[in-house]
Amino acid sequence: MTFSLTFEQLDNIADAYIPSLGLLCALLFYKDSLSHGLKKQAIRLISLSLSISWAYLLMFIDMQLSIWPRFNLDYSTHTALSLCFICHLNEIRPRRRALLISSFMAYALLMMYQNYHSLTDIITTTICILPPLYWNNHLMTQVILRQHKY
Length: 150
Prior knowledge:
Layout lengths: L6 H30 L1 H28 L1 H4 L6 H16 L4 H17 L5 H31 L1
Helix pairs in contact: 1-2, 1-4, 2-4, 2-6, 4-5, 4-6
C-alpha cells in the first residue's frame, strides 16, 4: 500500500505552515505572559513585528527595483516570513532548534516540490533576511536581560 498526497493536499499543507507558526507564536506569547509578565512579551511582540516588517520591506524594495528578477530569481516572501517566525521561536525556545530547523527545511523542500520557488530563490532570500533577523533577536534579548536586572 502506497501513501501519496495530491498537489492540492500538499498545497494546503504549504499554505498552513506560516499561519501555524504565527498561531504557535501567539499561543506562546499568551502562555509566557502568564509566567513572565506582559512587559517581556511586549518586547518580544515588537521584535517579531519588526522582523515581519523587514520581510515585507524587502519584498516592496524588490518589487520597486526588480532586484531578484534581474538575476532571473524571485524574492521568496514564504521563506522570509517563515524565517521570521522560526528565528523568533528559536530565540524563545532554543531547545527546539533542531525541530524548528527541520520544519523549515521540510517547508523549503515542499516549496521547491510545488514549484513555488527554486533553491536559489530560497537561499538568496535567506542570505538577505537572516542578518537583520539575527540582529533584531539579539537586540531583543539584550533589552529583556536589561529589563530583568531592574
